[in-house]
Specification:
about 20% helix; 7 helices; binds flavin-adenine dinucleotide; 6-stranded parallel sheet; binds NADP nicotinamide-adenine-dinucleotide phosphate
Length: about 240
């Protein structure tokens, strides 16, 4: 059984009315970058959140969106420095590089808050050591939701990160229009990244379950298959709902 640990909010940064990042002081947790943990204000209403911080960072960080009718997220968005947050003692999840086989190119493809686990992974040394190319794809509705610009700018300067963005509900210079599956099918996503997405790639997908389904369908058409420990493949997914 998981124990509940008591954390304290250090900062709640609001990127937009709906998007927020919580930084939380809590007893040390052991996890691998890409994993999640349940958080709560009271035990009965707990939800999984991916870590945004690197495992060695003692301050926990979570990136969330307000789902207006949701039982927990609107309350998390209102937390202030000093408020209590419960954190479960048992991080979990398989969207981690120790489960990903060797490949030339690692694609990390996300919608909305699905970028969170990839930011944790990118804060570690492992992707740069293991893969020749690393591509981060982030699709959002509006340009203002392309968050963590400072961190991504630092990664672009210090590593060979390739960063591709989509903005679906307004015109945004520098971002692709529309959705990931269509841009994968017609070649726009690979062109923007400057590397091919083929059998020499591993694709990690995270976020909206419809994006996961539609993107996997395109990948399977190309001959890629879901990765399983006993039957290695090219696709690893984590659905946020
Ligand atoms: C493994 C895992 C990791 C997760 N990590 C994160 C994370 O890092 N950040 C985060 O914000 N959420 C994350 N989630 C979702 C999170 O657990 C909650 O569902 C979310 O915060 C909404 O909580 P709620 O109680 O307000 O509404 P819920 O009752 O949990 O959800 C209501 C509805 O809101 C929509 N929804 C839920 N989550 C999202 C989302 N992230 N973006 C857009 N729409 C959503 C879905 O339609 C869902 O049916 C994760 C979920 C899973 C399973
Ligand atoms: N984003 C906001 O402005 C906002 C503000 C307040 C509250 N919320 C709440 O947050 C939730 C939505 O969060 P979100 O905007 O982060 O997530 P989202 O609805 O999953 O949208 C994120 C991105 O994923 C794309 N997408 C959706 N379905 C897809 C599919 N089948 N294949 C490929 N791409 C797909 C969207 O494109 P499309 O645009 O084409 O769908 C968008 O570019 C809702 O509950 C909403 O009420 C959102």
């Amino acid at each position: 059984m998981a124990k509940w640990l008591e954390g304290r909010v250090i900062e709640n940064r609001h990127w937009t009315d709906a998007l927020f990042s919580l930084r939380v002081e809590a007893p040390r947790l052991h996890f691998e970058a890409g994993q999640f943990v349940r958080i709560a204000l009271e035990e009965a209403v707990a939800r999984p959140f991916s870590f945004v911080n690197a495992p060695e960072d003692p301050v926990l960080e979570f990136y969330g969106i307000v789902v207006p009718e949701g039982p927990l997220s609107p309350r998390l968005a209102q937390l202030r420095a000093g408020d209590r947050l419960l954190v479960a003692s048992n991080p979990a999840g398989f969207l981690v590089l120790s489960e990903v086989p060797d490949a030339d190119t690692l694609w990390m493809v996300s919608t909305g808050t699905g970028i969170a686990p990839f930011l944790s992974i990118l804060r570690t040394e492992t992707p740069w050591r293991r893969f020749r190319n690393v591509v981060l794809v982030h699709a959002v509705r509006h340009a203002r939701e392309l968050v963590y610009g400072e961190l991504i700018g630092k990664l672009l300067r210090e590593h060979s990160l390739r960063y591709v963005t989509f903005v679906s509900r307004e015109t945004a210079p520098g971002s692709l229009a529309g959705r990931i599956p269509a841009a994968l099918r017609d070649g726009r996503m690979e062109k923007a990244a400057g590397v091919p997405l083929d059998g020499s790639s591993h694709v990690m997908l995270c976020g909206n379950p419809d994006m996961l389904k539609d993107t996997q369908a395109v990948l399977v058409e190309r001959g890629l298959r879901k990765h399983r420990r006993r039957n290695p493949g090219h696709i690893t997914v984590e659905s946020f709902w």
